[in-house]
């Protein structure tokens, strides 16, 4: 110590709903060493904590994008050399200091190598802790894979960057929006998607000096802000199961300074590590209240100076909102309409600006991995003469269609056993193209219709009424119901409808169930005793010999493929209950459609035997299992050929392509990624990788964006053709006539 008065510089003083740890660190040090000089360091006068009374002085710098970093680092060095301490409360400042002044005895930041070991999403250092990392996927992977990840976890996923912030992603379009926002705020495309873990949020805060773990506390959140930040918590002793491996880790990482491990405890008591922050948490004064002063322990480790004895006041802490006098005048608020410095007020310490300067992850504007081009589609395209086609033009991929129906037929045949037949019913509404309907019939499928128009289409393709399943809330529209008993099965969508069939349906009566805990407007609910009782009474009104068919349909593409299996289990449970309550045999179950083609191939079809054996075990009277695939068969059987009208160089890095296709030809363009192929001048088709460019439609509509974040070949030029794949199913059936001046044409 050069001076007699101890001095500590504490950066990250913002104290708002999403606070930095500076204030808690200062308060903890003040309690331990009443005469210590505390200097608040920050990079904006909007950091509210700089005005707090425990700070003796403030040192406010120009924003990070204006700071002369070389001069600044020299200043910090002189401060440290004078004997003052530096507590960094800002992750990126800690990273910068670790790289420039790391190892200085008065600087509380871990070495750069340790920071690499605790970087998200892998948090490599976690391996010896009793914690796991939630499943994640890096956003440098093709969109196709990112979408598959989101489906697997039922769109309960977070988009995260390497430093701060996590944003919930609930749909493909929200992913696109959040991705842009996060990538541009943090100047990085090192983003990743991570599965949400349901459970309680807990933390361990600790401090270590020269690799020696000095102390730690365990904190479980008792209240959180809408952003999920701690508002109240309970402090307890860290279990030895954690402190043991942690002490070894701090030693091997040569950890220096404070840190926080953030994790979720799930219902099986498993811990999932979300974050390892290289600084104290903002609630650190909560630990001091409970008698464990971690910031003081660091100073004591260096100086040997004994902190004031503190008595544990309470295990529990909460935050309050306080008005305090400001030490300097505040700038006026930006114009409410200007909407300018939103990032600035959200991150007053300017971390996004520092991220840009540290250049730790400049968005790579070079093409990333391309989606695999579907080989059978490449093959089909190379055999087509499309150069003279009027565009946009939808092409039917015959071989692809045949392959999809073949795969399904084989899977259904394999799942069959001696007592149960497994049948597919093609969902007409998904894509009523006669070629697909014929393919369905030729492959031994039934047809699933939701209106009398669809029934007519099925009949005109050669289906018998006895090969048609009738479903939905308006299945008789526009005719009165007749010949009810001649259909393969009719699934009533409400108790009212079910009652109308008593006396009309004799061999089999179908009911669509609305399962508990899922939100759907369809089917008969079973979640209250009243609704269940109504259903049972309505079913009992049918003759004893009438068998029951039960149906549920929830799109796993939106709901999650994992979740779907739980629903199937729950569905079987209700089927057993209904069979017992009615005293009638359940002879048929229908598990609906809603499968994304890849999920059907990799999850549904390979599990059909399991699905069958499970059902037979629970429902011994079962003789039929139905599936109602729609998009699983038709989505990839069409492509949209579109011609390049113009290339716009938005700036040196971004290009925009205007094509003659439009969102009216591809209404699902924002709902799932479409693979895009471009033709070069030798007539070869190449898949587009991920990149900085966009493909925009011909319409005067802001949302007419056909593909975002793609990489266009450099030699592409006006007049070239693109094929947007995966343009069947609802892209075809829901396409609409728009911008043709009333000369109706739907690009089909
Ligand atoms: C729409 C629908 C289907 C087909 O759904 P896809 O998502 O195209 O697979 C199957 N069954 C019912 C009851 C439907 O409403």
Nearest-integer average pLDDT: 92
Helix content: 25-40%
Distance between the termini: 80 Å
Residue stretches low in confidence (pLDDT < 50, at least 5 long) are 361-368
The count of strands amounts to 32
Which ligands, by name, code or SMILES, are bound? pyridoxal-5'-phosphate
User: Helical segment tally?
Assistant: 23
Radius of gyration: 32 Å
Structure classification: alpha/beta
Shape: globular
Largest sheet: 8 strands, mixed
How large a portion of the residues is in β-strands, by DSSP E?
15-25%
Structure, explained:
The strands form five sheets. Strands 16, 26, 27, 28, 29, 30, 31 and 32 form an eight-stranded mixed beta sheet that branches. This protein starts with 6 loop residues before the first strand and ends in a 15-residue tail after the last helix. α3 (91-101) runs parallel beside α11 (351-358) and α13 runs parallel beside α21 (608-618). β11 and β12 (230-236) form a beta hairpin. The longest helix is centred in the C-terminal third of the chain and has 22 residues, at 561-582. The chain has 748 residues and is of the alpha/beta class. The protein is globular. It is built from 23 helices and 32 strands. The protein binds pyridoxal-5'-phosphate.
Quick summary:
Helices cover 30% and strands 23% of the residues. The chain is α/β, with parallel strands linked by helices. Helix 15 (452-460) links the parallel strand 18 (446-449) and strand 19.
